[in-house]
Amino acid sequence: MRxxxxxxxxxxxxxxxxxxxxxxxxxxxxxxxxxxxxxxxFTTDYEDFRTIGCPGKQILDAPCKVPDSxxxxxxxxxxxxxxxxxxxxxxxxxxxxxxxxxxxxxxxDKCAxxxxxxxxxxxxxxxxxxxxxxxxxxDKCPxxxxxxxxxxxxxxxxxxxxxxxxxxxxxxxIHAKTADGCPAPVxxxxxxxxxxxxxxxxxxFDTNEATLTQDSVETLDKAAASLKEWGDVKVExxxxxxxxGTDEYNxxxxxxxxxxxxxxxxxxxxxxxxxxAKGYGETNxxxxxxxxxxxxxxxxxxxxxxx
Length: 307
Known about the structure:
The longest helix is centred in the first third of the chain and has 23 residues, at about 5-25. The termini are far apart. The protein has a domain at about 200-305: CATH 3.30.1330.60. With about 300 residues, the protein is an alpha+beta fold. Helices cover about 25% and strands about 5% of the residues.
């Protein structure tokens, strides 16, 4: 009876040794869970089915070949974008990446860092609706007419800073707060009305003399003030007499009286080159020499503007 345990021990050792031999003999088909195609590095869960066996095959059969038609590293049975162009980076579903989330995949996106929420074109670049070179997301003047020059904010330039943009500013380098950007025209004052002739009466002189009376001072001072208001107008100082006396005498007397008035006016600040003295004697009467009143009017000195 004691031989029985020993017999079982020998038998067990023999079976273990045989199993080891079988295990070594099966190295070529024994399941190896290592799987580089798996995200975990090992074959797990559903991967048992596709990497170890196919429907109708045993677990130790050769693994099935799972296709990756577009060669993006994601097998067709998981690829939601099966026609990805070669060389494109994809996500776990086999779809191309869109790093800036603008709806244009990185492989086509020429503006890969578009800020979130901006509208883009087919190349992934921000829209520039008015074509002024400033994208809509930064353009503070989005309706700029074509061809206009703009600043960094997309607004038309106003070189002189007068509030009128250059395209409408007729004087773009002159600061002027006007509708057309140009200074308001200088309105020249209306030309002064031509001065009227001044008639200085007989009270200026003593009878038959060219000497000025004391009463003539006020009249002549007013005449000088009027001449200054006339500006640079040249003036003829014309002397006249009545018809009493000879023509020669009257002519000489009218000249001397005209000279006396001219001299007084020069002394009051009227430039000498503006004044010319001339005597006309008893010619050109303005009243009837047959009466005392008429003769008084004819004895006169006139200040006549020269044209």
